[in-house]
Structure formats: C-alpha cells, structure tokens
Amino acid sequence: MLEIAVLGYCIYFLVSIYTSFMQISFVKEAKIKPAVILDSSKYGEAGDYAVETQRVSMASTFYDFVLFFMWISFGLVALDNFTLAYSGWQKAVIFIDLFIIINWILGLPFELYTTFKLDKKYGFSNMTPSLYIKDTIKSGILFLIFGSAVIAGLSEIISSFESWWIYGFVLIFAVILVINMVYPLVRDKMFDKFEKLKDKELEAKIEKLLDQVGFKSSGVFSVDASKRDNRLNAYFGGLGSTKRVVLFDTLVQKLSHNELLAVLGHELGHFKNGDILKNIGIMGVVMFIFFAIFGNLPEQFFLELHLNNEPYAIILVFMMFSPILSFFLMPLISLISRHNEYAADEFGSNLSSKNDLVNALLKLANENKSFPLSHPIYIFFYYSHPPLVERLKELGYKV
Q1: Could you give the CA distance from residue 202 to residue 382 in angstroms, rounded to a whole number?
Q2: From the centroid of its chain, how far is CA 337?
C-alpha cells in the first residue's frame, strides 16, 4: 500500500518538474519576441521574473522530494521515538507541531531567497528583516495556539469514534469556514492597518456599486499592503457579517476610479453568480473524499511507515499525502474556475464598461509584471484564471 502512495508522489514530482521545465523553455523563447500586452520595457523583465520563479520552484520541488524520502526512511521513526513519552492528543499535538516546524525551518532558505532576493530584485518586496520577524512570530503564535487546538480536537475525534473521518471532516470544514469569517479581523488586528477610504468620492461610488448588486458588507477599507509588497490587488474578505471590501493601497494609487470599479465589478460577478458558494461546495466535496480515503487506510500502511495506527500518525499521513491528490484534482477545479472567471469578466464589464475592465487588467499586468503567455500544459495544471491574452480577447481587445 505504501508503495502505491510513494509511486503517486514520484509521479507528482515528475509532472511538477516537467511542467516547470516546459514553462521555462516556453517563456525563454516567447520573451525575445515582440511584446504582447505588456509595455516593451516590462515584457522582457516579466519573462525573466517568470523564468527565475520557475527555477526556484523546481529547486524547491526537488528539495521537498528529498525531504519526503528522508522523512519516510528514518525521520518519522526518529520523531516518533522522540515523542514516545506522550500519548493521545498530547502526542498528536507535539508530533505534528514538531513535524510542521522542522519542515518550515528546512524550507526557510527558499522563502528568504524569494522574499529578500528575487522579489526585491524585480521591485516587488518591501519586506524588512524586522517586519519579517514580527510577522513570523505572530503567525507562529497563532499556529501554536489555534493550530494545536484543532489538532487536539481532531485527535480526540479519531480516538472516540469508529467512523471518525465523518466527524473529522465536519470539524475541519467548520474550522475553515470560521477562518474565512475571522480572517479580515485577524489581519486587521495583528498584521495590517485597515482604514476607511480617505477618498470619499471613491467610497461613495463603491457603495453605490455594492447596493446595485445587493452586496452587503461591513465597509470598504484600504490596507497598507505596500509595506510588504508593491503588487496590486483587492479582495472581498470574510463571510456573513464580517464581509468587507479590501483594497491594497497600491491599487488605489495606480488605478483610476472607473478602472477600480471595473475590478470590483468583476469580483461582484463572482458574488452574483454564486461562485463563492460553489467554491465552498467543491472544497467540501473534495475534503470529504480526502477524509474518506485517509480515514479508511489499512493497518499495513502505518506498519510500513513504522508508525502506530494512532491519531498522530493518521493526521501526519493526511498532511503528507493529500497534496498529491490535490495536485491531480487541480486541473478539473481550475477548469471550473477559469469558466467562472470569464463569466465574472462579462458581469463586471456590463456593470461598468469593457474598456474600463480592459484598461484595469492591462495596468494590473504591467504593474505586477505578469508574463502574459504560458505553456498549455502549465496552464492546464496551474491556472485558476484564464491567460490574460484570452481574457482580453473575450472582452474585445485586439491582442
């Protein structure tokens, strides 16, 4: 049984490396041709950034591949022996927390390189060492408190019920919904500075747009994202009474009122088309399938890992092998997502104008240095949004 899971991981690794290799070759060839969509001055730079990002991704994927086999060869046994004095939910919390922390430390070089070298080289990252340390400490505290509580709760469910995977699914699904509800509030209190829009004219236009489609929110906020990154973005955060419109300060600075309203119109298209509820439903179905699979693994699977069939081992196996299933499900989920993006574009352009949405997408691509072309196989596996070229064509823009 373990051999099948390891084979699946090997296939996942080879496909990941192959798609990255094909993407690098494709972009290197495309970036020396006449510029498409982007300004000529940024086209080559965007291509260089895409290539370097993929090279880091390939190195990280290979590194994770080596770590995976180190864990299943001797690492898990060593960690099991280290936590031998504990049992039940205490064993699960300590074992899983240590597993996550060790993996984070081992992967830290890639995170630091991307944040402080690669993204700074291309003018994205404004992160300082002190801010990075503060963010890391805050994230670590949240993980140790709330993450450990979830692990303990899931461990108790596994120990208490024969069909634990059904109740475990309910717990984790509920936790994810709660996280989505409180996410904007946590970001506001611990990480970012949320402020009511200072541009009252823009705020009035946004409120009018929200009323037009019946979107009820707790307010429109600007967030000081530029202290970390120069990319442009906006999102609707929260669920229920915590829903809010969040605009990156970089977005407010770079886009005109009409362009910004067109971007929000696109996002409101997702709301009006029920995409948020659809995504929650898809996530729930996928998660239920995962719990059904990992909740019914044979005893032999754990014996081959030299672990006991106990809560800590079950949670660990879920964490180690669910990304493989997710990777091979992503093409189908991404296909649905790309369809929804086209529909949201159509809604947003009708709500404002196609010209405003086109101009907004062009500015976003230029400011974020998003290379507009990708290899078809890379799009198949990784693109949750249609390629920008295709989106613009659908909006009537001649590429």
Answers
A1: 35
A2: 14
